[in-house]
Amino acid sequence: MAATEMSEAEQIKTFKDFLVQYNKLSELCFTDCVHDFTSRSLKSSEEKCTLNCMEKYLRTNQRVSQRFHEFQMLANENMLALAQKSGNPS
After folding, report:
1. Residues 6 or more apart from 71 whose CB is under 8 A from it?
2. Does the predicted model carry a pTM greater than 0.85?
3. What is the DSSP letter of 38?
4. Of 1, 19, 81, whose CA–CA distance to 89 is shortest?
5. Where's the Tim10-like domain (predicted)?
6. Nearest of 38, 33, 58 to residue 48 by alpha carbon
7. How far is 20 from 8, CA to CA, in rounded Å?
């Protein structure tokens, strides 16, 4: 039962993190791209800007995550090599 509760807590945290990122992205792209409030609909230039903004944000976020993962893997390999060199296989 504790594993199920932990899983639910992790799911809630993941969903909250997603909502924070989604709201940040929405606010950022809205602020940068939408300037005309005389109509209920987006102009084609505003729509194109928001799509480009979203794509750039997501690509950048993906690239940063990838680089972080690569850095973590390299750090783990270095720690393992150092532990083996010192005679402490952990």
Report:
1. none
2. no
3. S
4. 81
5. 9-69
6. 33
7. 18
3-state helix, strand, coil in the chain (%, to 5): 80, 0, 20
CA-nearest of 16, 15, 51, 47 to 34 is 47
- Of the candidates 59, 50, 61, the one whose C-alpha atom is nearest the C-alpha of residue 18 is 61
Give per-residue pLDDT as tens, 42-81: 999 999 999 999 999 999 999 999 999 999 999 999 999 9
Residue 61's φ and ψ, nearest 5 degrees, are -60, -40
Please give the C-alpha separations between residue 5 and each of 2, 11, 14, in angstroms, as whole numbers.
5, 10, 14
